[in-house]
Amino acid sequence: MLLVTDLDGTLLTSQKTISPRTRQALVEFRQRGGLLAACSARPVSSMVRLLQQQQVDKLFAWCAGFNGGQILEMTSQHMIHTATLSCMALREIDQSLSCYPHHFFSADAIYHRDDRLVAPWTTYEANLFELPFISAAPEYIFNQHDIYKITLVAEQSKVNALCTAMNNELPYGYMATITGGNYIDIQRTEINKGYAINMLRQQLNIATEQVTAIGDQQNDISMFTAANIGIAMGNAPDAVKQHASYVTASNDDEGIVCALEWLRCFAHPVTMRQSTTLAENNEPD
């Protein structure tokens, strides 16, 4: 089985750590022959650094960053897929976002227009992902050839309506997707986490039936669609849970551990039932 997991709000607690029980559950999953891939809106560089800090990087075979815009094979450290925005797209999308705070992601930096105020959510992402924050002239940014996505930021109460509005205003071929409480990512329409799963399936030559995805945000819904089983975290919005096959506990209640145990029962119902029956039969009268 290939298990594809989101990071923030899923594998990570709200303190941005992986609990010891979750780490052990991942180790046991790998020992049973399972394969692990991480898929996030984060840049791949931030994902790898985080997995190393949490001492689980050796367990993961792939990291798909920027919602599938970058896919790294962990063992070889070879980038097997990249999907950047064209210079023309940067200009067109920026025009659509003229009234809203936003920033631009390259593989190794966050860019911000020097003629606009910096929103606190932009500063937060730069610090969280440990990326250089570069304030530059618009023309300089538009001429970069390694921009993977543009992130629109807003108050959480306005994000849903703003995402809908943006999808009515963006140029053809581009899509806005909510990736967090204050964040909307804009990328090429075909680039999403489900796309990343399909890329990995092709590389492994496996069927959809062998893929499970776990996530908590709207950008994870495409993973649920591309996988055989989609598992939503307990902390996910109801709109995300509605697309899932199963809802586990929250990220602060070791939802990954619960999900992996549920998957074991789901994959081996007879074995698990026999084990339960045997235990019941051996109970003292």
Automatic annotation (TrEMBL):
Gene3D superfamilies, A to Z: 3.30.1240.10, HAD superfamily/HAD-like (3.40.50.1000)
GO cellular component: cytosol
A matching Pfam family: Hydrolase_3
Cross-referenced InterPro entries: Cof, HAD-like_sf, HAD-SF_hydro_IIB, HAD_sf
GO molecular-function term, one example from the UniProt record: phosphatase activity
Keyword annotations: Hydrolase, Magnesium, Metal-binding
NCBIfam families noted in UniProt: Cof-subfamily (TIGR00099), HAD-SF-IIB (TIGR01484)
Protein name in UniProt: Cof-type HAD-IIB family hydrolase
Organism ancestry: Bacteria, Pseudomonadati, Pseudomonadota, Gammaproteobacteria, Enterobacterales
